[in-house]
Amino acid sequence: MHQKKKAKTGIFRLLEIAGKRKRLLSLSALLAIGHALMTLVPYVLVCDILKALTAPVLDKVLLQQDIFKAVIAVVLSYLLLYASGMASHVAAFNILYELRRQMAEKIGRLSLGFINKTNSGALKKIMSDDVERIENFIAHSIPDFIKGMILPLITLVYLFCIDWKLALASCIPLVLLAVFIPLMFNRKRMDLLTNYHRSLEDMNSGIVEFVRAMPVIKIFGHTAEKFDQYSGAVYRFRDMVIAWVRNSAPAYGIFISFISNATLPVLAAGLYLYFSGSSTLATFSLFLILGVGYIRPLFALSNLGSQISVINHGVKRLDEILFGREQESSGTEMPEGNFEVSFEDVYFGYQQETYTLIDVSFKMPAGSITALVGPSGSGKSTIAQLLSRFWDPQQGRVCIGGKDIRDIAPEVLMKHIAFVFQESFMFRESLYENIRMGMDKSKEQVLAAAKAAQCHDFIMQLEQGYQTRWGSDGLHLSGGEQQRIQLARAILKDAPILILDEATAFSDPENEHLIHKAFHELIRDKTVLIIAHRLSTIVASDQIIVMDKGMVQQTGQHQALLEQSALYARMWQAHTRAKEFAI
Ligand SMILES: Nc1ncnc2c1ncn2[C@@H]1O[C@H](COP(=O)(O)OP(=O)(O)OP(=O)(O)O)[C@@H](O)[C@H]1O
């Protein structure tokens, strides 16, 4: 079982993640410090040059040497910056790779239901955008932060060595900043920042939904209403930004003006000391440059607060996946050759307080066909999802061959179950790979499955046949053709237990005939669970389970159910009437 350790949060968690590349990051930090030192050298030399220029006799050799040293320092400073950036980027991209790999592995161990429920856009955002931000922070912000802290410190030490009185004057803006910086990072501002990110996300999701759903919105004439919903999110974002700016502007303004006007105390003190004869022009000039310039790197720190807030948000979402509850399994083998499925007193709810399935019990003998029917929302798909362990029941057991599926290793269970979904998921690969799906099967087996699923003919009509890439220009497969590819995958998998979820829902009459041919090939000798709305497709099933409001209302064969179940009889009548209407 996954033990959730006492998790670090926010920036501490990020440093923990970054710690995996401690050596490279330390190297980057050392190089960043070297760069900071080198950037100081030309300024120090300016002081020497000024001294040389104001000396009674001009020492040209010394002057040339200083200029040469300054050029070397500038070159070295850039080389060190480059090396530090390289090291931090290599570390960051390795961390990025590691995080994405860990997340992909973890997603494979999370319950399929969790993945199904978590919107794919949100998962993409976490795996792509949030991880990217972490890379950005490690690659850029950590070196900037080190530089921002070290450079002022070294400069001040140096300045104190030259002239402690002028150095004290240079510290005045720093002291004032120390007072005002906490004002910038107040609790309210941090809350506003969190809300800012939330409303930004709302607005982004709003626009994606608005654009994606445009055909439906137009057909149903909801453009104005949906636009209002979207523009509502935009207005909320605007209000949020205004509130944030209002809160931060005063402290930020003070921060910027201190940095920009840091010259004043040095200028005043420098003029006084120069005219009173306690300081030289060279020293005064040095303080005018360095005693003011040392504050500039602090600029980089001014954005740190908002960056940390972004990172906190991203790291939290990342950890929701990395520390997400894994499916429990004591993981043993499948019962040898016995593929009878049974639901025993199963209670299941998506939310804790309400049950979607209530005391569901039934048996599917090995090699038989069981159909689930019932009104929309009665729990048919949920039963299918429980059998393939998308979720675990809160009470009761789902068994294969008498063994609780929680006691079967997930990968072993998956090997024995094939699921034909309502929607066809196609991958950006060749049609051949779309059928093979990484299974260890020969070319002959793939082709045989495609033929049995009635795909072979339409695939061979394509210019590149099986090598045609899904997503390539000009390739269009109808819904029925995509479903037949799904059936080919299931035939190729040849799993003993098969779940068909409304597999004929999208087909046209010609496709339906082909799909039925493929079906018969697929279901031979299998334990089959079919969820079908078209009752005519399941009249010959070995048993039909009538579901109503999450409960098994009646179980039996078609003829018997017509007499015993009023609900089934009504559904059958509605179905035959619909068929007559269609004729
Ligand atoms: N991921 C989910 N999270 C929360 N509730 C869900 C989820 N999936 C389904 N439900 C709810 O569970 C109930 C049963 O849904 P289910 O999809 O199992 O019914 P169904 O009989 O298959 O319906 P349909 O015939 O319309 O597909 C419904 O009220 C549905 O809203």
Automatic annotation (TrEMBL):
Tell me yes or no: is rRNA processing among this UniProt entry's keywords: no
Subcellular location(s): the record lists: Cell membrane
The record's annotation in PROSITE patterns points to: ABC_TM1F, ABC_TRANSPORTER_1, ABC_TRANSPORTER_2
Top-level lineage group: Bacteria
User: Which SMART domains does the entry link to?
Assistant: AAA (SM00382)
Q: Which GO terms describe its molecular function?
A: ABC-type oligopeptide transporter activity; ATP binding; ATP hydrolysis activity
Q: Does the record's keyword annotation contain Cell inner membrane?
A: no
The protein depicted here goes by the name ATP-binding cassette subfamily B protein
